[in-house]
Amino acid sequence: RQRRVLLSYLPSPAIDRMLDEDEAGRGRKAEAAVLFSDLRGFTSLSERVDPIELVEWMDAFFSRATATVLDELGMVDKLIGDAVLAVFGIPEALENPAERAVRCAFRLDETLQQLVRERPIGGVAAIRMGIGVHYGPLVAGSIGSDARRTFTVFGDTVNTASRLEGMTKTLGRDLIISEPVYEQLSETLRERFEPLGRHDIRGRTDGLFLYGCALRG
Question: What's the CATH number where 124 sits?
Answer without folding.
Answer: 3.30.70.1230
